[in-house]
Design a protein that fits this description.
single chain
Amino acid sequence: MPIGLLLVQALNGLQLGILLFLVAAGLTLVFGVMHFINLAHGVQYMLGAYLGATLAAWTGSFWLGLVLALPAALLCGLVLEVAVFRHLYGRDHLSQVLATFGVILFLNEAVRTLWGSAPLPMAMPESLSGGIPLMPGLLYPTYRLAIIAAGLATALLLWFLVERTRLGMLVRAGASNAPMVSALGVDIGRLFTAVFGFGAMLAGFAGVLAGPIFSVEPGMGDNLLILAFVVIVIGGIGSIRGAFLAALLVGLLDTLGRSLLPELMRLFLAPSPARQAGAALASMLVYVVMAAILALRPAGLFPARGA
């Protein structure tokens, strides 16, 4: 494979990893702090994309759409938490899985009713519509680099909030021993609501960023949610650092695997069978790596403190 194409695919993998991190960060916080399995986290990514596309069309500005979509995604997450999810915290995991799967079905149909089944277009900002030369004759889209930069900045901010602020201290304490934190006078229910809403806003932020390069359509978060679960399992449940590093690993494995494995299989097979075998192996690669990591480190690569 030419070096230029390999570089492009590596950057695509980093961009996918950043989007995975933004989704997985909220998911790992909710699961690590509240021990709540939220299969509906992917629909919050979808809602963010739809809200961003709609608000950008109404205002005529991608940036205004992004700014307005964040509090809207936060509000949607808080409404879901108050109306549905908080009633499931004391239930077993099977009840949580079934209930949140029902939320997925309901919201996917609600989106089809409100916006239709056809993909919703979302234009990227003109200031980021060009390309940056990586090497002579090879341009890489500026917007994709901006996604990587925005994700890195968000990861740094999230690390600071969790590790260096009082709210982050309460979140970490709540993850370790929620009854003790509650006994010390902290409203643990309000803390859980804040964590859930923040996670929903992060997923919505990822949806808005993904809107101009992926299809904004019903069910768009389902496949990403599966990879996000892989990320938090590999990285360690409740660990922001683990979610970040595992998301980059999964993004690179998924993207480079789909590019390199068909070429590698051509060393052993004819071109047509090589493409088929390479595609099949690429789709399995992330899960094979996850299984290997779990066999060696059941708590994940970077488990949260106390895990």
